[in-house]
Amino acid sequence: MIKTDILIIGAGPTGLFTVFEAGLLKLKCHIIDALPQPGGQLSELYPKKPIYDIPGFPEVKAGQLVDNLMEQIKSFQPGFTLGERAKDIERQDDGSFIVTTDEGTKHHAPIVAIAGGLGSFEPRKPPINNISKFENKGIHYMVKDPEQFRDKSVVIAGGGDSALDWSIYLADVASEVTLVHRRNEFRGALESVDRVKELKDIGKIKLITPAEIVDVHGDEHLESVSIRKNNNPEEDYSLETDYFIPLFGLSPKLGPIADWGLEIEKNAIKVDNTLDYQTNIPGIYAIGDVNTYPGKLKLILCGFHEATLMCQSAFAKIHPNKRNVLKYTTVGGVTGFDGTKKEAPKSVIRSID
Ligand SMILES: Cc1cc2nc3c(=O)[nH]c(=O)nc-3n(C[C@H](O)[C@H](O)[C@H](O)COP(=O)(O)OP(=O)(O)OC[C@H]3O[C@@H](n4cnc5c(N)ncnc54)[C@H](O)[C@@H]3O)c2cc1C
After folding, report:
1. E strands within 185-249?
2. Do 110 and 158 fall within a single domain?
3. What is the pLDDT of residues 280-309, one digit of tens each?
4. What is the C-alpha separation between 238 and 178, in angstroms, rounded?
5. 60 lines ligand 1 (CB under 6 A)
6. Does residue 78 fall inside a structural domain?
7. 267 or 137, which is more confident?
């Protein structure tokens, strides 16, 4: 059982910044995210796009902002459960919560902060009848740990950036990489398309287009896939493989959180924005894109603000008898749980009286 003060669901910018604000109040955080990497929409949808409305940054690339947030929270040593989806929640007699993921990992905390954005990103699955039989037994919809594929044969399907990028990466890891796409043209970045073609020319990637995987076979574990070329069933043939990775994109869904008894309006969680972004269940907060209230704006900076107020309220719940005096970080400094300390020398702060 993983124990923490604030259990954050969602490692998007809102969830990450929550760790910082909680850390200033000496509260420990643990984050669950269904994706294998932190950053939410910024990492998954637009890592190279510049953002122009983060205060103090005239321009910052989404991926860089995620790196900066990770650096900012490092000293507060958050725990991460990545690549797992928060599925069930159980309220304990003392008002705390146990949250269990789809892989059975249990987390216990007095406060749950849902920073789930548009929802957890669910893979778009190809329409193959018995595909679920081999899920996690040779079929994977995302790459959590590339080392899993070392010296194995891998078939990747898809025509976007993920399919191209993982084909390129795994060409140096797997024993054999076959990329199957239903068109001759790819949707991904031009340089990635060129790199895949180079790797094909030197025999490090097999490229099969226009083609689709139409069937999967095996006993306990995947053993082979059926490939249909030119949309012609007469050209179907079988290819032996250890793994099949369909990469057809991810679509966000609120998913199991929608069944936690929270008040939901238009696929978002209703919160009290006059106070602390708490939901209708005391101890569960919803911050960032996942919540709704009159005037809500789905912007990164709004998520940061909501996280800040939410942490103040969480502190009062966890320590009902302690008074928290707000201190500016320039005055109070930032003391990490790893013993590091950042503090401005007193001589550089002018007195205001
Ligand atoms: C193309 C594009 C451009 C944008 N440009 C800007 C911009 O310039 N400026 C700006 O301010 N905003 C911009 N936005 C909006 C911005 O990305 C969002 O406001 C921001 O990502 C919200 O952050 P978040 O942390 O609340 O949610 P998200 O970034 O959506 O992160 C939520 C995370 O929660 C995880 N999650 C959800 N449910 C579960 C679960 N049950 N279990 C485990 N994990 C779960 C998801 O996997 C995800 O990683 C843009 C959005 C898009 C799509």
Report:
1. 206-208, 211-218, 222-229, 237-240, 243-246
2. no
3. 999 999 999 999 999 999 999 999 999 999
4. 13
5. no
6. yes
7. 137
Only one residue has tokens 């995947």, namely 222
- Integer Cα distance of 307 and 14 in angstroms: 7
d(CA 131, CA 137): 10
208-247 pLDDT per residue, tens: 999 999 999 999 999 999 999 999 999 899 999 999 999 9
Residue 236, amino acid = D
Q: Are 238 and 323 found together in one domain?
A: no
Of 73, 68, 17, 64, whose CA–CA distance to 43 is shortest? 64
Residue nearest to atom 25 of ligand 1 (CA): 12
Host domain of residue 23: 2-121+251-342
Contacts with 231 (C-beta within 8 Å, 6 or more apart), sequence order: 210, 212
| Ligand 1 binding pocket includes 120 (Cβ within 6 Å) | yes
Q: Which two tokens stand for residue 2?
A: 């993983």
Give bridge partners of residue 239 from the DSSP assignment: 225
Q: Of all atoms in ligand 1, which is nearest to the CA of residue 50?
A: 8
Contact 255, 269 (CB under 8 A): no
Q: Is residue 193 within 6 Å of ligand 1 at its C-beta?
A: no
The reply to whether ligand 1 has any atom less than 6 angstroms from the CB of 134 is no
- Residue 277 CA to residue 291 CA, distance in Å, equals 8
| Four-residue CA torsion sign, 126, 127, 131, 135 | positive
pLDDT band at 24 (very low <50, low <70, confident <90, very high): very high
**Residue 258 and residue 225 share a domain:** no
Please spell the DSSP secondary structure of 232-247, one letter per residue. Answer: -GGG-EEEE-SEEEE-
Instruction: Work out how many domains the chain is built from and give that number.
Output: 2
List C-alpha distances in Å: 352 to 344, 347, 349: 16, 13, 9
